[in-house]
Every structure is written in structure tokens, then in C-alpha cells.
Amino acid sequence: MTDRLVQSFNEYYGSGVMSDKIMCCFAPGRVNLIGEHIDYNGGCVFPCALDMGTYMLVRKRKDSMINLISLNMPLKVSIDLKEDIIFNPVDTWANYPKGIIRYFKYMGIDLCGMDILYYGNIPNGSGLSSSASIEVVTAYALNEVFNAGLSLLKLVQLSQEVEQRFIGVNCGIMDQFAVGFGKQNTAILLDCNTLAYEYVPLNPGNYRIVICNSNKKRGLSDSKYNERRKECENALINLQKHIDAKNLCDLTIEEFEAFSEAVEDPVHRRRAQHAVYENARVKEAVSLLNADDIAKFGELMVKSHYSLSELYEVSCPELDVLVDEALKVEGTLGARMTGAGFGGCTVNIVRETSIEDFIRNVSLNYEKRAGLKADIYIAVAGDGVRAADNS
After folding, report:
1. For the structural domain made of 202-378, what CATH number should be given?
2. Which of 15-24, 63-72, 160-169, 275-284 is predicted least confidently?
């Protein structure tokens, strides 16, 4: 892969012109097994990094120009370090690396011009964190190329800040953290309030994690993601009049039920109910996985999906159809939407011997009911951001 990307890099930018070596880095996408829309509510999440992701090739220039090219997108963008770097909707995907470069520049890191090439094999808009992948790989590469000395946690936090303040999506830290700290064959139990985390081995036995891409595209900036966060904040304000809590997920189920009527708006109450119950599901799910009770883990996934669909209202007809059809297949233990919602993917636990039936039946029935073709693939938990061998 990297040899072909170096060849493409040289085709775009020329070879042998610069003395600096091409550096190649890789950051994965992520899938969240359970724990949706609670990272920004101070809850625990349970994602794993994937073996698909974003490659970035970079080489220094002798001037102040930075050129951004993606093999996945026709748009090419150039910026000048001598000028202010601003968000521009026209620049679409390039705003993510632009935001990272802007933050490095304003931290006082001595940057120079660069030629940069990206290639990603994460479906865009699928809910598998293609945006966090490009943010983290850019931060990691700049940190290496310019010897900035930033820790991995700082790079993750910087990437989240870019998403929030430069892109305009008021996200939690789960995506960037999983992309940065992923580990092969494990998931991460992350407390988004304290950033304490632990690795949990993924040993599903005769079952596999299967991702179904609905191919219903969605963009977080254009979705109701920020609206949901505001609704949760309003619910928390009401609850704080009666109970000491910094975040919604500080509440136990019992505490929430005791004071739920303090949330005057019924919509905001449903949002808070999802957050509190989902946080409890994450903790139970990890215990079940550690006890090798994959069947009950799957049941919690289904409860999570219905909560996201009915209480949090971030699912969509296409995702609901995928979950419905998945659960009709004998050998499916669990199915749920994953990611921010409004489109994107579902994650499923499927018996290995049932995968062919799953792919055939879900694909056929989803197309009949939703009018779209689903892309289905087996998920492999991979390592986080890293340098890639470019031979």
C-alpha cells in the first residue's frame, strides 16, 4: 500500500526535487461497540480502532506553501503559512487538516511549507470517524516532522478542539481518543469525564463483529448533533437544582428516576434518560464481555439501539431497517447503530457460521425496504495512529 502511495505522491509533487524524505503515517477509523452520545455527557464509552483508516504522506518544502491532496476527493487545496488559516466550507475535507495546521501554527511551532497527500479507505460519512482519523494522523505527522514533542494525549485533545472550534461540531473526545490509543484485538473502556481508560481484550469466540454501512450519508455539522448536546445541557441544569452532578452520566439510574420530573421539557428528559441508562449499559457490557457472556452483551446492544432511536432520536429509517433485518438472521446476537447517527453504520455480533446468511439476507432485504445497497464487512480491531513504513 505505502509503495503505491509514494508513487502517487511523486506523480503529484515530483520526485527527487526536495532533499527531505517523504514521511508516511496512518490513523485508523473506529467503531463504538456500545455507549453512544455519552462521551460529551461525562460517560463511559467502549470503542475499538479499526484496521481501515487514513494514510498521510508529507514532505517539507523550502517555502511557506502547504498543498493538500486527497486521492479520494477531486478537490485540491493550497494554503500559505504567511496568511491566516480560516475555515472555508468550499474546502470540505481539507478543513480538517487546515484546522490542525492552524493550531500547530498558533502554538508557536516552527512550521514550513509542505506537500501532503492523503488516502483513506474509511467510507466518508459512515460514522466510522473518518474526520477524527484525518485530524489525528495530521497532528501525529506534524508532531513527528517538526519534533514538536507533544504527547499522544495532547494530540488527541488538540484534534478534538479542532473539531469543536474550527469545524464547528461540539463533539466529545471518544473518536479522537480511540483513533489515537487503539490497540490490536482490544476495545477501550474510556471514562470521558476523567480520561481514565483500560484495554479490554476482544475475544468473541465463534462470533464476529460485523459492520453494515447503510450508505445513507450524513454530515455532523449539518445534523442535529449540536442540538442534542444542548438538550442534554438543559436537562442537566434542571437536575442540578436537586442533585450535585457535574455531568448527566454522574447520575445513577436510581438518582435519575428519583429526580427525572425536575427536567421540565419531556424531550430533554428523554435525552437525559438515554444518557444515564446508556452509561449503565456500557459498564454492564464490559463486565459481560470479561465474563465471556457474549449473548447478554448482544442483548445490551439491542437495548442501546432502541434507546438511541426512540429516546435520543438520532437513528433514521435506514439504520432501523438494518438492525431489524440483522436480528431476523439466526446467529445474530446483537445489532445497533454506531456513531453519531442520522445515517452511517450499524455494528453487529454475528456467529461465524451465520455470516454468509447474514450478508445475503440483510443485503437483499435492506435494498428492498430502503432502496439502498449496504456495504458489509468484518471488523478487525487494530492499532492506533502510527508511522507507516514507506520503504
Report:
1. 3.30.70.890
2. 15-24
